Amino acid sequence: MWAKQHVDPSDITTKVNDYYKRGQLGPLTVPELKFFLVAKKAKVGGKKEDLIQRVVDLLG
């Protein structure tokens, strides 16, 4: 069974912002994208492409 690891929200936010600036959100995992979207109070449903588009909409 997998144990949940403690994740610092600022680490995920920084990581997502860095990947966004490089134009490469694809390598991010779905849990990372969802974590970021929850922090921004955005919807987290849908496929990975949907999550990436929401991140782009929020940061763009």
TrEMBL record:
Transmembrane segments: none annotated. Residues 28-58 form the SAP domain. SUPFAM superfamilies: SAP domain (SSF68906). This is SAP domain-containing protein. It comes from Acorus calamus.
